[in-house]
Structure formats: structure tokens, C-alpha cells
Amino acid sequence: MLPNLARALIIFHAPLDREVGIDNAARLFAAARHPKSFVSLDDADHMLSRRADALYVGAVLAAWATRYLAEPESPSQTADHGCQSAP
Question: Which structural domain range is residue 59 located in?
């Protein structure tokens, strides 16, 4: 499945996570095609129960995702360029 994803992938993993081992995260990362990123979460737990860990993941994910999201159109791009009002 991952080799055919055709999307950017980010994997967050805490080395001390007791729910999902680093070997599992490493296999997922190795199976995925680029673009892909791996972020180590130091001593966070699997559920990100500490607020600081959750905020960190949110900030990193938001910054990372901007590279892969289409920029929103400006109002001038979405306006109907074919219609002009009569004088």
C-alpha cells in the first residue's frame, strides 16, 4: 500500500513508545516513496498526553504540510474574469 500512496507522508514516532516500536515506524518509512519525513518525538508517549508534545506535533505538521498543500486562490483569481459590468 505505501509504495503506491503517491502522496507526501510524515511519520512521527517516540523512541520510548510502548504501543508502536521503532522497527514498525522504520518499516513504514522505508516502504514509503518520497516525499517522506520522519520526526522523532523524544520522550513523548503514544497518545501525546502531554500538552507540550501535542502542540509540538501540531506545529511541525502544520509547517510541513504547507509544502504539499496547494495555495488558496486569491479573490482576484476566483473572480469571474469574463463578465464586466456595463457602464
Answer: 2-70
Query: How many domains are contained in the chain?
Result: 1
- pTM for the model stands at 0.73
Cβ(51)–Cβ(24) under 8 Å? no
What average pLDDT score do residues 36-63 get?
95
pLDDT at site 87: 45
Residue 87 domain flag: no
Residue 21 in any domain: the answer is yes
Residue 30 and residue 33: Cα distance in Å, rounded?
A: 8
Q: How confident is the model at residue 6 (pLDDT cuts 50, 70, 90)?
A: confident
Residue 33 lies in a domain: yes
Distances from the Cα of 54 to the Cα of 10, 11, 77, 82, 85, angstroms: 15, 14, 36, 47, 51
